[in-house]
Amino acid sequence: MKLMWFHLMPYTELPADFRDANPSVWVDIHSSLFDPKRAHLMYNDFMDELEYAAECGFDAICVNEHHSNGYGLMPSPNLIASSLARRTSDTAICVMGNSLALYNPPTRVAEEFAMIDVISGGRLIAGFPVGTPMDTCYAYGTNPSQLRQRYHEAHDLVVRAWTEKDTFAFNGRFNQQRYVNIWPRPVQNPHPPIWVPGGGSVETWHWCAEMNYVYCYLSYYGYKAGRATMDGFWAEMDRLGKDRNPYQAGFLQFVGVAESRQQAFDLYGEAAEYFYGRCLHVDPKWATPPGYTSEGSQRAGIESQVKKAADSGVRGKSTGERFAGVARDMDAIVENGYVIIGSPDEVAEQLREVATQLNVGHLMLLLQYGNMSKDLTRYNTKLFAEKVMPKLKDVHASWTDHWWPQPMDASQRAEISAFVPKLAAE
Amino acid sequence: MSEPETLTVEVNGFPTRIWRKGNGPKIGFLAGFGGLPRWVPFLEELAKSRTVIVPSLPGFPGGDRGHTVLDSHLDWLLAVRDILDQAGLAGADLAGSSVGASLAAEVAALWPATVRKLALIAPFGLFDEKNPPTDPWAQRGDAVPGLMCADPEIWKALKSPPEGANSIEWPIEQVRANEAAARIFWPLGNTRIEKRLRLIKAPTLLLWGEADKVMPRAYAEVFAKGISGDTTTRIIAGAGHLAELDKPAEVAREMLGFLGTA
């Protein structure tokens, strides 16, 4: 199976009274909480951490897009990814992803992703999220009633821009462009693998299954809550008569590994509580722009609540609504399976269970979260790579990953010269 | 309060409800934010002396999913014109509230012969950076009733499912009404209607709830100054944004006084 290292790039210095003193980490978080000089250090630490994960042997490093918030500092994950393309050599680069409806014209996504794919020699995984309500409808002002239609149209435009050989006119409902002809074209043929993060909506399961895209559940609520969502995806795959190839699925999981469970609890408690307490503190008024949740998903959500189903806390709920009900102290965080902690053996055993129970071949691991220090992040990353990773490599070994980047042959790729600052060299 | 007669017409392929009640000259009414999931006392008041015709707007209660095919402002205006024609309202008096008032004003601007006299309750369509409307789509759920009506219980009663209603579809229809309003007016409520007000030649009554927490009352002056026809402005004491829900008798009295009763 594939073990991927994901960074959310949270602002790490939100004050201790953040929850009480501020209505929201997202959309209208106050600028006075942001110190650019501290953020300079954070960005550089975070990029060091991503590069370190690549050195440690993770299969991929992952970044994502968010706007106007202290929970994630990457309005443009493509900027980070282009730097990673130069500072890593063989690791896949997963941009999870670009919120398609926010780009005007969406051709921009086709271009930037093609650039990253070319610079990296074909190592890009192209993630296409719809984006959270906070990012899309409020921070970026996209009409919630048109968001999904725009998303699907933008997807069609991007895929055509990658694959059509000749200049073409795109005559869409929302986008009209007389001459589409992107330069550069992606290295990967016909295009980088497309992965779609979903929140459990019926339509997204169906679309991923039908389009043969990877369905990713980026849950912060652990595998117990994620089970129903992934089951829903596999049920849709069965219904359409598709293989249950675990590599058509991805799942996000927080992990803290140490010498023992107690040590892990002590080491990672502060960072986990910072994340669940401060980073997910979203004002409910940003949770439900009307039209964002499809009527099919609303219906499934109401039915799930009526039945008191296992997934009643997430089905038909928007990101912000889910955040509101989250556990915030380390005991409950661990008890609910939000963060898997323990010795390397204990963590490996739990992750093996996640990967097999949920039938996922791509685990996106959050080994940095909240205000976790660079030292602790490196410790967590290194211990995982050395002691946990080898124990998981055989999981799903009988399946082929058809959704992994196909880079250029190493012999054809550019040699990247080491970065040596002039002053230091003299 | 007896139920109105209900007709169904097709608009862009979607079944669209038209309520009709009373006798006398016709008056059309386009509902405000949230639409009308049930017949309300205000319409009953009008029906005492006029033929009241209430077409649903696309996506609002009774308007099915008609909003989903409307992508531009022109699409919306053509749909509203179509609905008014099918409802037999061409040339009649036209009233509207909130989002419906904005569309009524647009119809009067673009097709002056379609509207005899116009009555608008706190219409959407303007945005002044220094005095912005409240964002109706960025609200905690429990804040909406008190934002729409001076008496929150009135909104809650309007939106609570009647006996026998489908407990799954009812709440979805109420969300759909908010989505339909968003589809026209997201994110600021600014359709640049100001540029078209001079085209309105019909005599126009402007009503504003004294306690409107959504639309600044100063906007009444912008409408009054912009509209070419004669305008009269009245403030409804004790009413919120949807003044016709808070004060049905008072709003109906002002309207009938302006439009005439027979």
Quick recap of the structure?
The complex is a heterodimer of chains A (426) and B (262). With 426 residues, chain A is of the alpha/beta class.
Number of strands of chain B: 8
Strand content of chain A: 5-15%
Which shape of chain A, going by the Cα principal axes?
Answer: globular
Question: Which pair of chains has the greatest number of interface residues, and how are they split between the two chains?
Answer: A-B, 23 and 23 residues
CATH superfamily name of chain A?
Luciferase-like domain
Strand content of chain B: 15-25%
The 3D shape of chain B can be described as globular
The CATH architecture assignment of chain B turns out to be: 3-Layer(aba) Sandwich
The total number of structural domains of chain B is 1
Number of strands of chain A: 11
Overview of this protein structure:
Chain A is α/β, with parallel strands linked by helices and 426 residues long. Chain A has one domain: Luciferase-like domain (TIM Barrel, Alpha-Beta Barrel). Helix content of chain A is 42%, strand content 12%. In chain A, helix 4 links the parallel strand 3 (92-95) and strand 4. Chain B is an alpha/beta fold and 262 residues long. Chain B has one domain (5-259): Alpha/Beta hydrolase fold, catalytic domain (Rossmann fold, 3-Layer(aba) Sandwich). Chain B has helices spanning 41-47, 73-86, 99-110, 144-148, 152-159, 169-185, 218-226, 243-246, 248-259, and strands at 5-11, 14-21, 26-30, 51-55, 93-97, 118-121, 204-209, 231-236. In chain B, strands 1-2-4-3-5-6-7-8 form an eight-stranded mixed beta sheet, sandwiched between helices. In chain B, strand 7, helix 7 (218-226) and strand 8 (231-236) form a beta-alpha-beta unit. In chain B, helix 2 crosses helix 3 (99-110). The interface between A and B is medium-sized, with 23 and 23 residues.
